[in-house]
Amino acid sequence: MKQILFLNLALLTSAALFAADSPKDELTTAVKKLESQPNYGWKTTVVVPESAQFKPGPTEGKAEKGLIYVEISFGDNITEGVKKGDKAAITDNEGNWKLASELEGEEGFGRFLGALAKNIKTPAEQISELMPLTKDLKKDGDVFSAELTEEGAKKQFRFGEPKNPKGSMKAWVKDGMISKLEIKVDAKIEFNGNEFDAARTTTTEIKNIGTTKVTVPDGAKKKLA
Q: Is 168 domain-assigned?
């Protein structure tokens, strides 16, 4: 009887240890470690098909003490964005700072900018929101990968109605925290009666942990006050 009890206890303990070391738990720990850093920066690049009419440039981001600052490239133009808590501000075509809430009622590019401002996130926030929308998370060395659910893939498209959306996520861990994130999505989207390929690969690399400083432009300070 004692041997049976000991065996059952050993099996339960092994199961608990295995669960604690699951890929999901390890990835969650790596995300939390990045979130706990006083500051860090990142660079995001987007690769789209050659046939795509809109080819976004890189985004440079910084996070420090609850502030997020980004510079988003559109061709030769750079749009600045700042987020503090639930409030976000972004520069318009003329370089004027506008709150995301001020742009909600606009059409065209103004509305696009408003949605862009509202969706400013740190890489840690992005992965935290993405993890519940994945399936079959696996670990290979320091790389975690998973397929996105249909809902998860669909949420990566802010505009239009994606057809047959699918996607995947890959995260690299270094020194116990997230160091790189890659999101691949594929879908067809109909716009103005035309269907186009909306596939893209978005890669974010973390940098300058502990040495990043966020300087909020005066125009953004006034809007976020």
A: yes
Is residue 191 a contact partner of residue 214, using CB atoms and an 8 Å limit?
no
- Where in the sequence is the domain holding 215, given as residue range(s)? 46-224
- How far apart CA 42 and CA 64 sit, in angstroms, is 12
Of 23, 63, 17, 41, nearest in space to 173 by CA: 23
Q: What are the pLDDT digits (tens) for 106-121? A: 877 888 899 999 999 9
Cα–Cα dist 127/144, whole Å: 12
The one-character DSSP state at 183 is E
Does 11 fall in a domain?
A: no
Per-residue pLDDT reduced to its tens digit, 11-29: 444 444 444 579 999 999 9
Q: Give the number of other Cβ atoms within 10 Å of residue 138's Cβ.
A: 11
Beta bridge partners of 201: 47, 184
DSSP H stretches of helix in 64-108? 100-103
For residue range 182-214, list pLDDT tens digits in order: 999 999 988 777 788 889 999 999 999 999 999
